[in-house]
Amino acid sequence: LDVIAQVEPRVAAAIGQELTDQRESLKLIASENYASPAVLLAMGNWFSDKYAEGTAGRRFYAACQNVDTVERLAAEHARELFGADHAYVQPHSGIDANLVAFWSILAHRVETPALAEAGVKNVDAMTPEDWERLRRSFGTQRMLGMALDAGGHLTHGFRPNISGKMFEQSSYGTDPETGLIDYAALRERAREFRPLILVAGYSAYPRRVDFAKMREIADEVGATLLVDMAHFAGLVAGKVLTGDFDPVPHADVVTTTTHKSLRGPRGGMVLCTEEYAPSVDRGCPMVLGGPLPHVMAAKAVAFAEARRPDFAGYAQQIVDNAQALAEGLQKRGVRLVTGGTDNHLVLMDVRSSGLTGRQAESALLDAGLVTNRNAVPADPNGPWYTTGVRLGTPALTTRGFGEAEMAEVGDLIADVLDNTQAEGDSKVKYRLDEAVAGRVRARAAEIVGAHP
Ligand code: PLP
C-alpha cells in the first residue's frame, strides 16, 4: 500500500478501507466470498503486462511461454476438478463466459452447418454478399431459460442483457405452491417452443436442480443443454452436488464464475464436451478481449486449492450453514421461498413484515448485516424494490462460521425485521428502532471479530 500511496494516496486509502470494511461486516451476499492470499497475490503481478490472444501454444503474440504455462495449468486443474472434457479459462467474468457459450453454440449448431450446406470451403474467399446471405439464413434462434423472478439470471435471454436481443426467448418458472421448478411444465414449454438452447442454472433459487431431467428434456426437443453454475460451482467442486445434481456429466456446455462459492479470482470459465471445444476456444477474439494472464494464474491457484481434500469440507459446511440459517429464521416466523434450502442460499419473503426487499436490505445494512434484495416469484414490487432478500453462506463459512453462529445470525436478522416499519406507502423509507439496530450491530461485530 505504501508503494501505491506514493502515487495516489486516495487509492491506497480506499484499498485499506475496503479491507477494514470487509473484515468488520457480516457478509451475507450469496455471490461473494473471500479469496485466499495465494489467489490475490497470483493476480497482482507482472502477468498483467502481457498480451496473449489465442490459446496456449497458438498465440498471436510472441514470448507467451509463461502465459501458456498458467493457462494450461488452470485448464488442467479445472478439467480434473470438475471431470470435464475441456476447459476454457479465459472469460473475464460470468457474463463473458455466457457470451462465449452462446456464440460457440451458434457457431457449432447454426453457422457450421449453414456453411457446409452452402458448399463454402474457404470462408476467407466469401464475398460480402455471401456473408450477408449466410447471416440472414441463420434466422433468429431460440433460448429457453429460468424466469428472472423464479431466480434465473438476466444473461439467460432477458432484455437488460444482449442475450435478450440475440435470441427469441421464453422462460420456465416454479410451482406457485412449492416454489420448486415445475419440470412437467418445463417439458411442455420446451416441446412447444423448441429452443436451440435450454439454459439451466440460477442466481436466486435455493434448491438443487435435477440436471439429468434437464438433459432428457433437451434431448427430446433437440436443444443444447447449457448450465450456468456461476453460483454453485463451489458445491460441484466440493462434491456436495453429485449424480443427477452435478451439471458436468449432463450438460453440453457449462459456464461459471470463479469468484463466488468457488472462491477464486473475479472471472469466468467455460467447460464443455469435446464436440463444442473448437468453437468455445474461439471465444477470444470472437467476443472476448485479450486474456488476463494474471487472472488465469489466480484461477490455476484457486482450482488447485479446490482440489485439496479440505475444500469438500468447506463446501458441505456452506450447505449446513445455509440450513442452520434457514431454520433460525423459520423459528422466528420468517417466510422462506421453497420453505428452506439445500444449497448455499436462502431467499426470504419479507412481505409479512410489511416491508419491501429494498427497505429490509437497508434496515439490515444499518444493523451491520450486508445482504441484497431480490425478486421472489410473481413479485408484487417488481425487480427494483422487490419483496425478497437473498442471503448466502459462502463468505461467512470461509471465515469459520458454523451452524451455531448461523442460527444466531438468523435471530439477528429477525430482530431487525421485527423492529422495522415502512413509512406510509413508501417502498423505500422505513423506521428501524435505534436501540435494536445498535444491539444487533454490536453483536454482529462481536461474532465477526471472533472469526477474523
Ligand atoms: N450467471 C449467474 C447465474 C450469475 O449469478 C452471475 C452473477 O451474478 C453471472 C452469470 C454474471 O457474473 P459476472 O458478474 O462475473 O459477469
Defining traits:
alpha/beta, seven-stranded mixed sheet, four-stranded antiparallel sheet, methyltransferase activity, Serine hydroxymethyltransferase
Could you describe the 3D structure shown?
With 452 residues, this protein is of the alpha/beta class. Helices cover 46% and strands 14% of the residues. The protein contains 19 helices and 17 strands. The strands form five sheets. Strands 4-10-9-8-7-5-6 form a seven-stranded mixed beta sheet, sandwiched between helices. Strands 11-12-15-14 form a four-stranded antiparallel beta sheet. A two-stranded parallel ribbon has the order 1-13. Helix 10 links the parallel strand 8 (224-228) and strand 9. Helix 3 runs antiparallel to helix 13, helix 4 (65-82) packs parallel to helix 13 (293-306) and helix 18 packs antiparallel against helix 19. It is globular. The two termini are 21 Å apart. The mean pLDDT is 96. The protein binds pyridoxal-5'-phosphate. Residues 31, 93-95, 153, 155, 201, 203, 228, 230-231, 257, 268 line the site of pyridoxal-5'-phosphate (PLP).
